[in-house]
Write a structure and sequence with these properties.
alpha/beta, globular, seven-stranded mixed sheet
Length: 293
């Protein structure tokens, strides 16, 4: 691909975005997917998987902070965290910001994603790769969860592609069933559920699946500029009630104790609390809570 060429995202057949390439850094066909990393004129360095934007240096903080800080602070004392996907290292870095975390296991199926991110997107993962609390595994997250011991983790963070191709198995009954089993009594799981303006079925179907295994299911939103179509939704499923209803004061106190407060670019205690208040076009895609919940 030549300098000043344009790359068009291929997520939707009839609508999309494009970037002008300043310099191509890597283009690899891995065992699992096509990986393109380039330097753009507007968003810093960008990674595409199978033609779909995964991350840009300019706005990665929005998605990574909300995917990480919301569940860990909602839990309040997550010591053991499992990350599935997130091969760029950004979620791992944010998890390790939390003083409560004693162990963070990251399982990414595509080693080439990790390799290219470390080489060409080093700011995103930072020093997380070398943290003594981190264990990075190149392997199948589904298999890892299936083999993990009961109550092995306090929180699971799933940063995957959409439910097509390599990411499809992370949206199944089998996965959520094992996820519920390996989470501790107060455990919770979050995962990206797409942009509901364009992908309402993704939020609706995966929320219904989570509800089969978790008594408390919901979602929250983040505005990520390069995930076109409006709010990105992050699915939230917990074993205990009320974790999405914490006061701003409680969230702020937990963030201060965890060492997170004042170290973010998007997440704040106020944003955290507000993110669970969904507009009707999104909330209608969530399961209606049963009376016994």
């Amino acid at each position: 691909m030549t300098t000043d060429a344009w790359v068009n995202e291929t997520l939707y057949p009839d609508w999309g975005q494009r970037f002008r390439i300043k310099r191509e850094l890597a283009h690899v066909q891995s065992e699992f997917q096509d990986i393109l990393v380039f330097e753009s004129y507007t968003h810093g360095r960008v990674m595409l998987l199978d033609g779909v934007v995964q991350i840009t240096e300019a706005d990665e903080f929005v998605y990574q902070e909300m995917l990480t800080h919301v569940p860990l602070l909602a839990h309040g004392n997550a010591r053991r965290v499992l990350i599935i996907g997130a091969g760029d290292g950004g979620v791992l870095r944010r998890v390790l910001m939390h003083a409560t975390v004693e162990r963070a296991v990251m399982v990414e199926i595509d080693g080439d994603v990790i390799r290219l991110a470390r080489e060409f997107l080093p700011k995103i993962g930072g020093d997380a790769w070398h943290d003594a609390r981190a264990e990075v595994i190149v392997g199948d997250g589904i298999d890892h969860v299936a083999k993990a011991a009961d109550a092995a983790f306090d929180a699971i963070i799933v940063d995957s592609t959409d439910p097509i191709g390599v990411g499809e198995v992370l949206f199944t009954d089998a996965f959520y069933g094992h996820a519920a089993r390996v989470l501790s009594t107060g455990g919770l799981i979050v995962n990206q559920c797409g942009v509901p303006f364009m992908q309402a079925d993704e939020l609706r179907e995966t929320s219904a699946r989570r509800a089969r295994f978790f008594p408390h299911v919901g979602a929250y939103v983040a505005a990520v500029p390069t995930y076109v179509g409006g709010f990105m939704t992050l699915g939230f499923a917990a074993k205990q009630p009320g974790l999405e209803l914490l006061s701003v004061e409680t969230i702020r106190a937990r963030a201060g104790a965890a060492g997170v407060l004042g170290r973010t670019e998007y997440w704040t205690p106020e944003i955290h609390a507000a993110a669970f208040h969904l507009p009707p076009y999104i909330s209608r895609e969530l399961p209606v809570p049963r009376p016994d919940k």
